[in-house]
Design brief:
Strand order of the largest sheet: 17-16-22-13-14-21
CATH topology of the largest domain: Rossmann fold
CATH superfamily of the largest domain: P-loop containing nucleotide triphosphate hydrolases
CATH class of the largest domain: Alpha Beta
Largest sheet: 6 strands, antiparallel
Helix content: 25-40%
Number of domains: 4
Radius of gyration: 34 Å
Strand content: 25-35%
Number of helices: 22
């Protein structure tokens, strides 16, 4: 696309690592797209005004009433295809007006295609499909077309046909233009600019009457499909004396444009090609301009206000969306006038959809402008963070190159360098007025565009500093990573102090590790996750009495108490003052000889003094017991599900030099000793975190996944149900889809009309699975489901391990796998 538009002078190659938009070293080394890249170009090129794109690259005149008759600016965002980089796709989809979905004609509709297609449907984005790699052995255009209907749930409108040589091994010679009823033949081994265009009547010169007949069949099928979904096409068909071939190309394009703009989209235009052989790209560019909507034609952006009002951005700017609720009728007119004045101060509204830390340019915030014009040195109010920044410079990005500009207009994508606070998903408004106080209208100050949803992470690794001096820099580097990629998350394990980095998959975290170590130069070790196990007693300890008597800082302090620990079985009998500790532990404090105010209940026993009020004493016991539960007696893991009963008798445990610190220490020592006594009588048992996992899989993989969860991973299936997030049926009868034959597709040529499993044939498995078994599960799930399985998980509870499982876990912790 960049080459034919005149932006570049050579065609980049993924295999050589010379593509324009894949400029990161990791992208070129792996041959994949990792982060989305934005670039702008014109089609047709600006050098050929008042001529159509087809005229520009064929030299033949065509109908000048189409949109592609005049140059259009195209903002292209190249997104990743790997499932681990789902968030890169999501935040790009959020700002798109239209999309081109590229399919591999050998692999067909793949798992990630289905997932991204559903995501694009959530944003109501009109889409085209380009079936690529038709030059490869085993390419099956017809099979792929049927899979589009069966798996994506839309009717494929074939706007182009692959044109193969009938001899010479079936090499791809060009494409057939179904809309304009012509064949476009490309020069073998050329750069795609030397083409020969033949009409239906001229096909005899090329000696391919069969292809001409197939092109007629495709045109008939296209008109009939459009007539089923577009009443205006029915009128055009009748005006053409019910001749499918006589319907004008302009009528067909207009009908296609109306159909793909309808939401939910039921018809998708399909174009063939082989980008490696430079075949079929120019017709696709024509389709982008002719069929996909411009920013003015796209749907009204969704907004919300601080008052809770929701609606469209254009309605808000027109004053139709009530920004606030006016409590008094008398001030309604005044409030409306004030709101209108506030709207007049609004110069532009944009969404920050990507943040990049460039080593040379600093922080780059990618924005999509939805209304007005962003100008250099304008005041920007971040409605999400409620703070103001200044756009000192504006850039237009061309992949990794940047050009400084004065303005970014409506519908354009640009970059604001140097913003300190803006994050992915923040709404930025440009306004006139005081740069510190923000917009004069409260409605404008609280205006927010639809945010970008961050999917939950499913994979975790540990990050450790090589030395204490590096911890500060590593913390700052992780903050940089999180601002760049919100789908990463950082948490600190409270027990071990270990920093955990979570992401969407193994490759995602591998790239994050490379970014952290190689690009940001952080001296850190990336390890595997440490499971936070727990320990629980299995028998009671009996009464354990401890007296704390020490001299600290030249002052002696003394206190005592008696403790009994027991396993938590069933409900808890209410005794004394009850406190809930962490990890399901419960502390009961018995003070049988003290009243509710700390005074003695009898003359024979002492009460508490004024400097030891009862609430403070109880809090001291709670602190001491909680400290003792932080480390178990056998394996050193925190105590879980244990009932602690502490008895405090002032006659035995209270002394003249008793302090709150002494009481807390006495409770800690007594609980620790009671835990040791219980463990000596009967060994403690390990408890492990169990995750509530929701797995979405194709129906044909349901049995293998359930077996794997139940047998290999020690999990329990809670429920099986249909996936509510996916359609229950595609609504497309695959047997009615027109698909041309695949004469050179080998074993894939003759396939049934089933088109593979439907997109809606998915099931949800809800199961409880130990966390240890879920580490690295995503890769295993993809292998079991052919890449179509996804899952999310949250912590459910801790459960006791069985004897055999505990033995295996302890062996692994000791490094003894013998």
């Amino acid at each position: 696309m960049l080459y034919y538009s005149g932006y570049t002078r050579r065609i980049g190659d993924v295999d050589e690592g010379s593509t324009t938009t894949d400029f990161l070293p990791a992208e070129r080394a792996r041959g994949i797209t990792i982060q989305s890249a934005a670039i702008s170009f014109s089609w047709p090129p600006n050098s050929s005004p008042n001529t159509s794109a087809l005229t520009h690259w064929t030299g033949l005149p065509v109908n000048l009433t189409t949109a592609s008759s005049h140059p259009h600016n195209i903002n292209l965002i190249d997104t990743p295809g790997h499932a681990d980089f789902t968030f890169e796709v999501l935040r790009s989809l959020r700002v798109l007006d239209g999309a081109v979905c590229i399919l591999d004609s050998v692999a067909g509709v793949e798992a990630q295609t289905e997932k991204v297609w559903l995501q694009a449907s959530g944003y109501n984005i009109p889409r085209l499909i380009f079936v690529n790699k038709l030059d490869r052995e085993g390419a099956a255009f017809g099979k792929t077309v049927r899979e589009i209907g069966g798996r994506l749930g839309v009717w494929p409108a074939i706007c182009g046909l692959p044109w193969w040589n009938q001899d010479g091994g079936g090499a791809l010679r060009g494409v057939g233009d179904v809309v304009n009823l012509r064949a476009i033949r490309y020069e073998s081994g050329g750069d795609g600019k030397a083409v020969r265009v033949s009409s239906l009547s001229e096909f005899g010169e090329d000696g391919d009457a069969a292809f001409a007949a197939e092109l007629r069949k495709a045109r008939i099928a296209l008109v009939e499909l459009l007539a089923e979904h577009d009443d205006i096409m029915v009128e055009a068909f009748l005006d053409a004396d019910e001749d499918h071939l006589a319907v004008t190309p302009a009528d067909v394009l207009a009908s296609l444009r109306r159909c793909i703009a309808h939401q939910p989209q039921r018809i998708v235009p399909v174009y063939p090609g082989a980008s490696f052989r430079n075949i079929g790209v120019q017709p696709l560019l024509d389709a982008v301009v002719d069929l996909l909507p411009s920013p003015d034609e796209a749907g009204d952006p969704e907004i919300s206000l601080a008052s809770g009002a929701r609606g469209g951005l254009s309605d808000f700017l027109a004053g139709k969306l009530e920004p606030t609720q006016t409590p008094k009728k008398a001030s309604k007119a005044l409030s409306k006038e004030k709101a209108q004045m506030g709207l007049q101060s609004l110069e532009a509204c944009a969404l920050a959809f990507k943040v990049v830390f460039d080593p040379k340019r600093g922080v780059l915030v990618y924005v999509r402008v939805y209304s007005g014009t962003l100008t250099r040195n304008s005041n920007l109010w971040n409605t999400s963070l409620q703070l103001s920044e200044r756009a000192q410079r504006l850039l237009k990005m061309y992949a990794n190159d940047a050009v400084e500009v004065e303005t970014i207009t409506t519908g354009q994508i640009g970059v604001i360098p140097g913003l300190k606070f803006a994050r992915t998903g923040d709404t930025l408004v440009s306004y006139t007025g005081n740069p510190k106080s923000g917009p004069s209208s409260g409605a404008v100050a609280g205006l927010q565009l639809r945010p970008i949803v961050v999917p939950p992470p499913v994979f975790f690794v540990s990050v450790e500093a090589s030395s204490l001096s590096e911890e500060g820099y590593i913390r700052e580097s992780l903050e940089v990573l999180l601002r760049e990629d919100p789908s990463l998350a950082v948490a600190v394990d409270e027990e071990s102090g270990q920093t955990l980095l979570s992401g969407m998959g193994e490759l995602h975290l591998e790239i994050a590790r490379d970014r952290l170590v190689n690009d940001l130069r952080a001296k850190a070790r990336i390890g595997s996750i440490e499971i936070g196990y727990r320990e629980a007693v299995t028998t009671g300890s009996g009464g354990v009495e401890e007296v704390y008597d020490r001299e600290v800082g030249g002052k002696s302090s003394k206190a005592g108490c008696e403790v009994v620990v027991e396993p938590m079985v069933g409900g808890l009998e209410e005794r004394g003052q009850v406190f809930e500790l962490a990890d399901g532990n419960v502390l009961s404090v018995l003070t049988p000889t003290l009243g509710s105010d700390g005074s003695s209940s009898s003359e024979e026993t002492p009460g508490l003094s004024d400097h030891l009020p009862l609430p403070a004493v109880l809090q001291a016991f709670k602190n001491g017991a909680a400290a003792a539960c932080a480390r178990g007696p056998t394996h050193g893991y925190p105590i879980h599900s244990t009932n602690i009963t502490l008895t405090f008798e002032p006659s035995k445990h209270l002394f003249p030099n008793t302090t709150l610190a002494a009481l807390s220490s006495a409770a800690r020592l007594a609980v620790q000793q009671a835990l040791k006594t219980s463990a000596a009588a009967s060994s403690t048992v390990l408890m492990e975190p169990v995750m509530l996992v929701t797995i979405t899989v194709p129906e044909d993989s349901l049995g293998s996944i359930v077996h794997d969860i139940s047998s290999a991973r020690g999990g329990n299936v809670v429920s099986l149900c249909s996936d509510d997030s996916a359609p229950t049926a595609t609504g497309v009868d695959v047997s009615r889809i027109y698909a041309p034959p695949d004469p050179f597709a080998g074993g894939n040529a003759e396939v049934g009309n089933g088109g593979g499993g439907g997109l809606g044939e998915t099931k949800q498995i809800v199961a409880r699975v130990p966390l240890k078994e879920m580490v690295g599960y995503l890769k295993h799930l993809r292998s079991l489901t052919g890449g179509r399985g996804t899952f999310t998980m949250v912590i459910d509870r801790f459960e006791r391990m069985g004897g055999q499982r505990q033995k295996v876990v302890l062996s692994g912790l000791r490094g003894d796998y013998g």
